[in-house]
Design brief:
single chain, mainly beta, endopeptidase fold (from Nostoc punctiforme), 3 domains, seven-stranded antiparallel β-sheet, six-stranded antiparallel β-sheet
């Protein structure tokens, strides 16, 4: 369901039926809703609804979704610098071909690319390069953004009246407990790369991707505080000089990672390469297809089916299953019999017999090739904590007693790109997701002891 507010007051409920909406965009009374199944529904002012086909997009790692002059822009974390899909919603549906650009859209004329610049021995560094590109002419401006802290992303927010860049930066440090602390700032940057003004953003109760939007020359932030949600204008930095700004990262002393493989404390398995870990991760994702029978959906005590599964038929993705540790063969065998599809009932004390699929830690255990399932509280028996600046694909981020995700990369826009078995966005399955780094302060970066260099 979507709630509509007019002039700050609630005005309408929009029922989306069985579609679970993850992002919306609106223009001139027309609403566009992006579903968690990657469908797009266009809802006109008279409530007439049109389904827009988007078969070209096959990742859930979507960071932005907006419309301008009837053109939809869908930004994903694909590639080294992100990818923007462009879909003109005007004309006949069959003529609505999707175009693709390398980078992240700013407006209909401008796209930008951010490349993190790693330093020796680390996956990131203290700088990044931003390129701002005119879509029509190809003219490019380039700027190096530097910091005394780890740089994990930047977003282009346009120019001020003097032609300086307005940029949102994401900086990071790892504290003594190996938790990640992120600072988000809005900066005015001169053409020479110097910081002319800076504004620190409030710590969010719930951080989301792409929390800042630009309308005309104004910058707005969705401010998610503990007791209220605000939309505030943050166009002007509130510190006119960098010398008066005090970073919340300045007193953090970072721990040093132990990066040597330690198979003696692993799972008594052979060493596993990062490419094999990622191949395992993807094998449970969109390439995995399976058949569901009616008997796989019959009622069972303490069992609730994943929401993306309707009736009998053919599906993709390994379903989420509380306590589950199913291999692909075990899952298919279960579905050929009376086994139940996944289980999103997480209130039970453990795995419910005759349910098949993977929960978050079962998925990471399978990706790492372990012989048994490790939970979020026991996985440190076969892993070690590392500094966030050392994260590589195939490592993980663990919130002990709660959730664990497999790390793929930093996306250059302040987000992690992940694989996880999750109920996030009602996916209820193995998903390729993007989460803001700021939202994961309770997670600890870890590395499997058996991963090869």
């Amino acid at each position: 369901m979507i709630l509509k507010f007019t002039n700050g007051y609630f005005s309408k409920k929009i029922d989306m039926g069985e579609i679970i909406v993850v992002k919306i965009a609106c223009e001139d009374g027309t609403l566009y809703a992006l579903g968690n199944d990657l469908s797009i529904i266009q809802i006109n002012s008279d409530d007439n609804r049109i389904t827009i086909p988007v078969d070209d997009i096959n990742t859930e790692a979507i960071t932005d979704f907006k419309v301008k002059n009837g053109v939809l822009y869908i930004v994903t974390s694909e590639g080294d610098v992100g990818t923007t899909y462009i879909l003109n919603t005007k004309g006949e549906i069959k003529e609505r071909n999707i175009k693709k650009l390398k980078g992240r859209i700013f407006d209909e004329n401008t796209i930008y690319q951010v490349e993190l610049l790693p330093e020796e021995g680390h996956s990131i560094g203290h700088s990044c390069e931003m390129k701002i590109i005119d879509i029509k002419s190809g003219d490019t401006e380039s700027i190096i953004l530097e910091s005394e802290y780890w740089v994990v992303g930047a977003q282009f927010l346009g120019y001020d009246s003097d032609g300086n860049y307005r940029i949102k930066m994401f900086e990071m440090a790892t504290n003594e407990n190996f938790n990640i602390v992120v600072e988000e700032t809005i900066r005015t940057i001169g053409k020479d790369g110097s910081t002319k003004a800076i504004r620190g953003l409030d710590t969010q109760f719930k951080s989301i991707t792409n929390q800042v939007k630009v309308f005309g020359n104004d910058i707005y932030e969705l401010n998610n505080l503990k007791d209220k949600v605000q939309i505030i204008n943050i166009s002007e930095p509130n510190e006119k000089t960098t010398s008066s700004y005090k970073s919340k990262l300045q007193n953090i002393v970072e721990p040093i990672s132990d990066l040597d493989p330690d198979i003696t404390n692993g799972d008594n398995q052979l060493m596993i390469s990062r490419s094999t870990i990622m191949s395992n991760a993807k094998s449970f994702h969109s390439s995995f297809r399976w058949s569901c029978q009616s008997k796989n959906l019959e009622p069972l005590t303490n069992w609730t089916k994943p929401r993306y599964v309707g009736s009998a038929g053919t599906y993709q993705y390994m379903p989420y299953c509380w306590g589950g540790f199913s291999s692909i063969d075990q899952y298919n065998s279960g579905m050929s019999g009376t086994g139940r599809v996944g289980n999103i009932n997480t209130s039970t004390s453990g795995h419910v017999s005759n349910t098949y699929g993977l929960d978050c830690s079962g998925y990471v255990s399978r990706c790492w090739g372990t012989s048994t399932k490790y939970g979020t509280s026991t996985i440190m028996n076969i892993a070690k904590k590392i500094n966030a600046s050392d994260l590589l694909e195939g490592d993980a981020l663990n919130n002990s007693g709660s959730h664990i995700v497999l790390f793929e990369k930093y996306d250059g826009a302040g987000n992690y790109v992940l694989y996880e078995s999750t109920k996030l966005n009602s996916y209820d399955r193995v998903s390729h997701t993007v989460r803001s780094i700021s939202s994961m302060g309770n997670y600890v970066p870890i590395r499997y002891n058996g991963v090869s260099k």
